[in-house]
Amino acid sequence: MTQHRSPPLDPPPAPAACPDPADRPSSRRPADGMPSLCRRAEARLLVVDDEEAVVRMVERVLHHAGYVNVRGLTESARALSVFEEFRPDLVLLDLRMPGVDGYSVLEQLRARMLEVPSPIIVLTSDLSAAARQRALFLGALDFLTKPLDQIEILLRIANVLEVRYFQLRQHAEKVLLEDKIRERTNELEAAQVELLDRLARAAEFRDDTTGEHTERVGRMAARLARALLVDEREVRLIRRAAPLHDIGKVGIPDEILLKPARLSADERLVMEGHTAIGARILSGSRFRVLQLAEAIALRHHERWDGTGYPEGVAGDRIPLPARIAAVIDVYDALTHARPYKEAWTPEAAAAEIAAQSDKQFDPWVVETFLELQRAGSLLTTGIL
Questions:
Q1: Tens-digit pLDDT profile for residues 187-203
Q2: What's the rounded Cα separation, in Å, for the pair 70 and 62?
Q3: Residue 316 — φ and ψ, nearest 5°?
Q4: Which of 35, 137, 224, 270 is most exposed by smallest CB count within 10 Å?
Q5: DSSP string covering 337-349
């Protein structure tokens, strides 16, 4: 016989309905020093010993004490598979067994333990320090010396199970706390995303009430950033920062911002001030997404050849996110109607972007942009 569920000497008293674990302290014991009858009925115990008489004796002692969920095993080679199927709260394990000995079983079980490991009590007649040290090193928690004493069996199991229940409760509380933190973090991230979206829409509201321009710029900028092998976390931040490129327009008078004709030289100077206004609005933040947004707002009208505004910064001195946003902003503006112009075809807009490579735009960014545009994958970002 290799696995046992032997009957108790006397039928154990049937436990009353167990209260919810949160309603009962795990450290409380009845007067006999044992875990509550309810806890004994819940506990799953696995006994592994090659001597069938030992297994049957331990089973009978445990059943009589109210531990009704006990499995006995005399084939140590099956210990791991039974453990994984049964998931016991406690293992009683003999060390000296033919074939797969207790030390090997300890190694196998240690490799498969869950976050809260099942405690293991070693059954042994070997009282040497070397045997105990090796068993402890491999994960044993306590020892029972053969020949086994029935009272000692019950007391040691009671002590070890109390530790097990405490660890399980601590783990459950930790998981609950982590879930609450994760939920709260997700809520804060969602609120941040919504606030950034609404802020971006505010910048475009007077000349684009739909907010579609900012949304498209964010999505296409993220897609282009990813194709340029930008770090994935940075890609997601660019997705949220790029729509704020024109936040400074909130400080531009309507008669200039909404003028349907070409701007005069003085009006253009006022319009160009939206870059500095936007940077001031976004400056001083400790959050990376707003730091990126500040750089994009300030530099997305700088030119690769140094003839842009507000400061004539050239080449690699222009932050990459701003170089990305510059290409995307112009492409989207060209392909959609504005008060002063009709929409261009995507092909015509792409040709204009190509013509401005190494002049207005970074050639590397333009080359990658054109590959995406020709493939029709600029808006298929997979980035929310």
A1: 887 888 788 888 887 77
A2: 8
A3: -70, -10
A4: 137
A5: -BTTBPPPPHHHH
Using CA atoms, how far apart are residues 311 and 302, in angstroms rounded to an integer? 7
Burial track 137-149 (b if 16+ CB lie within 10 A, e otherwise): ebbbbbbbebebe
Listed in order, the ranges of the chain carrying CATH 3.40.50.2300 are 3-178
By DSSP bridging, strand 3-4 and strand 69-73 are antiparallel
State the burial class of residue 251 (Cβ atoms within 10 Å of its Cβ: 0-12, 13-18, 19+): middle
The Cα 355–Cα 173 span in angstroms is 61
Judge: domain 3-178, CATH 3.40.50.2300: yes
Domain with CATH 1.10.3210.10 in the chain: 205-375
- Are 110 and 139 spatial neighbours (Cβ–Cβ below 8 Å)? yes
For the stretch 281-302, pLDDT in tens is 999 999 999 999 999 999 999 9
DSSP helix/strand/coil, 186: helix
Three-state secondary structure call for residue 361: strand
CB 360 within 8 A of CB 304: yes
Residue found by looking up tokens 């009208």 in the block = 301
pLDDT in tens, 320-342: 999 999 999 999 999 998 766 78
| 121-158: pLDDT as tens digits | 999 888 889 998 999 999 898 999 899 999 999 999 99
Interatomic CA distance for residues 368 and 173, integer angstroms: 49
What is the chain's length?
A: 384
